[in-house]
Amino acid sequence: MTADILIRNVRPFGGQLSDLYIRDGWFAERGRQKAAVEIDGGGQIALPGLVEAHTHLDKTLVGMDWFENRVGPTRNERILADRRAKRELGIDARRQSMRQIMQTLAFGVMHVRSHVDVDTEIGIANIEGVVETRDKVKDLVDVQIVAFPQSGMLVREGTLALMEEAIKAGADIVGGIDPASIDRDPVRHLDAIFSLADRYQKPIDIHLHEPGDLGAFCLELILERTRALSLQGKVMVSHAYCLGMLDPQRQRSLIDALAAERIAVMTVGSPSAPALPLRVLLQSGVVMASGSDGIQGTWEPWGNGDMLERAKYLAQRNGMTNDADLKETAGICTFGGAEGIGLTHYGLLEGCRGDLVLVPARTLAEAVALTPQKRTVIRRGQVVARDGMLCGGPQHIG
What is the pTM of this model? Predict the structure, then answer.
């Protein structure tokens, strides 16, 4: 049982100064009892635990030697290079997933959804590695694992069977990838992953990089299967670049359909891909989440996993500059991500889990724009980081 903790003089999600009280790891009314621990927030911004809704814990090179990137620009070239790197660099999924999780916990990231590779070369070894890490850090960070057929599923015989093995080994979500351009058969690909999700009662998260009309067609197939299997609120489409490439009428029709079926959309705000119509998506009621994708890996050298910084990138990519805009992007990296990945008891209100991040800024917009690093991180009523430095956690992280 954790000690009661009182956090004074903070601005919950940039609002008015107030106090927050945590009892037994949950936000609660203070009552008359004296807290065992008191923290003076000094007017800092209080956010619920940041949500990393899309990353690849098994691929990161955090803490390893610098990777000289000579990889070609196409997705297939990157997939092949990534597969080769697993063999040649000795990327250990257990060690590397732990390194990334502990790095981002210091920023206040307490909820992570990771796509983990499943293919005929590595089998489910990476799934097993990240499952082990998930179990070790469960008191510090919530980790969701997506069984992800990065190299394709139908085009690599035996991968679908491995996807089922991955679910049995502890994966939480069924993943998919570009059913047309990689697997060459969108109907069969989507039928396979929706069938697997239905059989094991799991959510779905599909990488969809398909452009324009091809991507729109794949979205329509996803919508059809979500309706047919009553999977509303349990499907996420990651990237969905096609939404930024369609004529306004078709774009709006698809967005309204996504909102109606409660299909979430994850965007990283990539500078090299078409920008999604973020304002239209939010105004239409589509649940929007965000993530770092692969950080410091063989695909790209960028990123540190700070989801407050990701909120800044989203604003920059979408030309959002005023304070209300920055509040919207902060919402995507907190409440939007939480809803998108199915978290419960999330937030700063009574009855929510006692997870929060204190950011030394006077307004929420300032917190997003400047992303101060000296944060205090509280996980279920226990201080796990002060001034941006971890207080504890696993002693050996590789």
Answer: 0.95
